Amino acid sequence: MIAIDTNVLLRYLLQDDEKQSQKATALIHSCSSVLVTDVVLCETLWTLKGKKYQLARSDLLAVIDRLFRERNIRFEEGQVIWRAYRDFAEAVPVKIAGGKKKWPDFADILIINKARHMAEAERETFEGAFTFDIAAQQIDGAERP
């Protein structure tokens, strides 16, 4: 197993730098198991939705789906990522100050799902993941402080 950093995953997904993208693709395709950590996945999605690339939620969902379909890509906790993916897909925007709408971020949803998973693994009662983020509070398991 190897692990890849966010910049390698981005070059692989975007194919936007001829030399680096070629190296990233060759590396990923040459290994039987490539770990994409939670941090790398969240950084990748944050970068893709940011100012430079401005991917829509549907595009971010497609990226996660594509990574799940890659035969050699592994996540730290695949089931947790899958639950976060489902929650992200089913989330709705909430109204915030000024009448604007805000969607929950994938990273916030993953935090909630990872916390629930850790409590289950430790056989402890999950009492909630506390957040001030109003959009994230709609996710099952999120609580207001």
Topology record:
Blueprint: E1 2-3, H1 6-14, H2 18-30, E2 34-36, H3 38-49, H4 57-69, E3 73-75, H5 78-90, E4 94-95, E5 101-102, H6 106-121, E6 129-130, E7 142-143
Parallel strand pairs: 1-2, 2-3, 6-7
Antiparallel strand pairs: 4-5
Helix pairs in contact: 1-2, 1-3, 3-4, 5-6
Description:
The protein is mainly alpha-helical and 145 residues long. The chain folds into 2 domains: 1-76, no CATH class; 77-145, no CATH class. Helices cover 52% and strands 11% of the residues. A hairpin with a 5-residue loop joins strand 4 (94-95) and strand 5 (101-102).
Q: How many domains is the backbone divided into?
A: 2
Q: Give the radius of gyration.
A: 16 Å
Low-confidence stretches: none
Largest sheet: 3 strands, parallel
Helix content: 40-55%
Strand order of the largest sheet: 1-2-3
- Shape category: flat
Distance between the termini: 40 Å
Given the helix and strand composition, which structural class is it?
A: mainly alpha
Q: What is the H-and-E element order?
A: EHHEHHEHEEHEE
Number of helices: 6
Number of strands: 7
